[in-house]
Amino acid sequence: MDPLSWLYARQGRFAPGLERIRALLARLGHPEEAYPVALVGGTNGKGTTARALAAILEEAGFRVGLYTSPHLVDFRERIQVQGRPIPEEKLLALLAELRPHAERLEASFFEVATALALLHFAREGVEFAVLEVGLGGRLDATNATEPVLSVVTNVGHDHLEVLGPTLKDVAREKAGIFRGGVPALTAARGEGLGVLRAEALARKTPLWVLGEDFHAEGVEALPEGLAFTLRLERTGEALRLTARLLGPHQAENLALAALSGRLLGAGWEAVKRGVARAENPGRLQRLLWRGKELLLDGAHNPEGALALREALRFHGLLPAAFVLGFSRDKDHAAMAEALRGLGPVVLTRYASPRSEDPKALLPLFPGAKVVEDPLEALEEAFSREDRVVVAGSLYLVGEVLRRLEGLPAEERWQ
Fold this sequence. Notes:
Layout (H helix, E strand, L loop, with lengths): L2 H6 L10 H9 L9 E5 L4 H14 L4 E4 L11 E3 L2 E2 L2 H18 L3 H15 L4 E5 L16 E4 L7 H4 L3 H8 L9 E3 L3 H14 L3 E3 L4 E9 L2 E8 L5 E6 L5 H15 L4 H10 L7 E5 L2 E5 L5 H13 L6 E4 L7 H8 L5 E3 L21 E2 L3 H9 L4 E5 L2 H11 L10
Parallel strand pairs: 1-5, 1-6, 2-5, 6-7, 7-8, 13-17, 14-15, 14-17, 15-16
Antiparallel strand pairs: 2-3, 3-4, 9-10, 10-11, 12-13
């Protein structure tokens, strides 16, 4: 079995805990100790925040490693140095090196991927690593590092079966990436913020809260993105920032990244340049398909669906038809409520047993049509409107991107 197929075969393994990843890193000589780390967790927006922070640090002159998940088209997207994915030959060589240790320790897919990223960063001499938390925080493999800064973007209703059952439980798990004396930032609200605040106090973690200690103000839609003003309450400093990302919710994610970069030593000009060039594929990503507009968005929980709805209205991207496919373990009813009434719906699925049967979703979308093949679903949607939005799962978005590039679908679990 080739190294990547071996790794993918481990997707079904899931056992929360840090024992295996710590043992694996010890066997590798603790590569995670070779550079400072920023951890970025949260229910939604952590990928955008991580990518923007990496861009800011690069603009500040650091050699930066970035680890994100899941990938869309190619596994190599997850592990980048200076914005470039890990070369295939290095990926395969590192997997071959890791394999005997991982098998001995019964490490999971995500634990192997995390160790691989940390080892690659050490060997590439990165001066800073930005790691996107996979699931939760306290027991996530990325939390085997010792961050110099932590971010919890927000706390929402996702993965309750693992992290819950309540929102307060989810918040406590996410606060697990806080460290004593190490700055942390959040844009959380309500009871989630209350728990994060209490956990930060107990750990003696200095916590910066969006809407209290810093602000994202004057958010406006631009033809190709958005603009907003970052204002710091403590100093009175203010900076107008522009970005290529769509959706007013992205102003919060970018504000978190901007202040994080500043706390890590980036100057304001580096912050401005990094935010301006930050991208996050699969999050309201705009493409042309046969001369028509295609929008790809990985919204996969109720909060994400509501943010998508608001973004489409904010940027004047309605009317549109929708191609939707959900994972089985999501709150389908709440997502349907958020997206209902925006336009005609075609229900589909991605190539994994984790994908929900689109026929089972029909009661939530009266009048919708089921087309099981995603590209055929696109054809159907474009027969109804000249703009189509694909949403409901990053795995669906990834499959559509792969298929548009002429690549076969991947069976995805993680």
